[in-house]
Design brief:
alpha+beta, three-stranded antiparallel sheet, elongated
Length: 116
């Protein structure tokens, strides 16, 4: 799924909100997540999972083309840990795609605060 599909899905479920407003909502949602992570925080979405950052130490790598040694600086990397209910839905022995989508739609309702 790409961002435009997410905006379209939000608009389809809530036609009272214009497509432009749906785009702004999605931008705001992801902007808040990125902002919190950039500040070193953690973002937890119940039923979905938790995003955090982890520090990667500086290391020596190799240029795959030349084989030359290259210094790779320390950096932060995004880490995602799936929530228990998401993990359960995705790994349910007889889960159908419709059941997984239904669970994600419920999560959407909880996050956005709307009920269909």
């Amino acid at each position: 799924m790409v961002k435009s599909e997410l905006v379209d899905a939000l608009h389809k479920n809530h036609p009272e909100i214009t497509l432009e407003e749906c785009g702004k909502i999605v931008d705001l949602f992801f902007g808040e997540i990125v902002g919190r992570l950039a500040d070193g925080g953690r973002v937890e979405l119940r039923g979905f999972g938790a995003f955090s950052t982890r520090r990667r130490e500086a290391k020596n790598g190799r240029n795959p083309r030349t084989g030359a040694s290259v210094a790779v600086p320390a950096k932060r990397a995004i880490h995602f840990k799936p929530g228990r209910s998401m993990h359960g839905r995705l790994n349910k022995a007889n889960a159908t795609l419709a059941e997984v989508r239904g669970g994600l739609e419920n999560l959407h309702t909880e996050i956005i605060g709307f009920s269909a």
